[in-house]
Structure formats: structure tokens, C-alpha cells
Amino acid sequence: MPYDWKGGVVISGSFQGNDQTYLVDALKQLGNGFVGVTQLAPDVSDEEVLSLHQHGVRGARFNLYRGGREQLLYMVSMAQRLHDLVGWHIELYVDSNHLKELSTAILQLPRVSIDHLGMSEGGLRDLLHLVEKGVHVKATGFGRVKLDVVNAMKRIHETNPSALMFGTDLPSTRAERPYSHKDYELVCEVFSEKDFGKVLFQNAMAFYRVQDH
Asked: Distance between CA atoms of 10 and 151, rounded to whole angstroms?
């Protein structure tokens, strides 16, 4: 079913580090309806955060999956600072097998989403516990996860119909299989018309506050 709306979310890649030029340029070219999520150094100034916010950035990402565990030392305090300053949320690239040990910290974050369905089958129960507490989950990276994608999507949606947010994960850097249009078609097959509208764009529009940009 077509929708008369154009927009989306651009995620700064982990390999781009704290260089904001790529993301800002992309948002300028894409225009209204598109917002961004980026990585930030812990000592980033308020002025830089406010400038990024004006360019459409709406969240900060922590990569705990690829050697970023030291970010836990400042994640909660930084998340609160960003939320108080500009209302940003936090995105976590993390293996769900580690969610039990991280749950106390994650539940202190004002607003948070977890990438790629949590990556692993073994931590799905812990992921669902966080979903019950208001954590959002991105249905992305089907070619990089080690779990039953259909089962995970269904259980997350059943736990909280507002939690699941589909995305392409393009350019699928380091994924075993890059994004395919069949990933989109799978979501349409799994969910009813009412529900796939929420998963494909309504949940994300509300979470990323796309209308504010």
C-alpha cells in the first residue's frame, strides 16, 4: 500500500567516528522529512550539539557491539545531558546476549532503541523485558543477525505494538548479506496492513520526531 509521505532516518556509520560532515551534508541534501543519528565524543560541547540539532540530528548512537564497552562509563550521564539539552534519544548497537548485565544502565536512559533486533536469539527474552519497559527496537540488518527474524519481530510487536521500527541498514557495512527489497516484503507479509503501517513508518516517525524537522 503506497503512502503519500517522503522521509527517513540517516544513521552515521561507526566507521565515520565523530566526523559529522558526512551526516550534515546528507541531511542538507535530503531536506525536510529526514533526520539523523550520530556518534559523539563524551566531551562534545553544548554548542556543537545544538548545531547538529538544527541540522536535523535527533539521537546519539553507542556501538557496544564492536569494542565500544568503554562507552558504558559515560553513556547514562551523556544520555541524560543530551535529552535535557535537545530531547535526543540513544541508540544501542549491542548483542542481546549482554542485555541482562546492561539492563540497569539501559533503563536509566531517557529514551532508547536497540539496533538489529538485538542480533542474537539467546538474548531475545531479555530484549522483550526491555520492550515491556518502553525500549524500542529496530527491525534492521536481517543479513547480519543470528536469530529467527520473523519470530523476533512478531514477539516484539506483540509485547509493544509501538516498539518495532523497520529500516534498511544501508549500506549494510560488514553485513554477511546486504539489505534486499525482500526484507521489506517480509515485513509486509508478516504483519497485517494496519500493523505494517506502524512497523514501516508510524512508530519511527513518532520516536524520531520527524515532524519536528
From this structure: 27
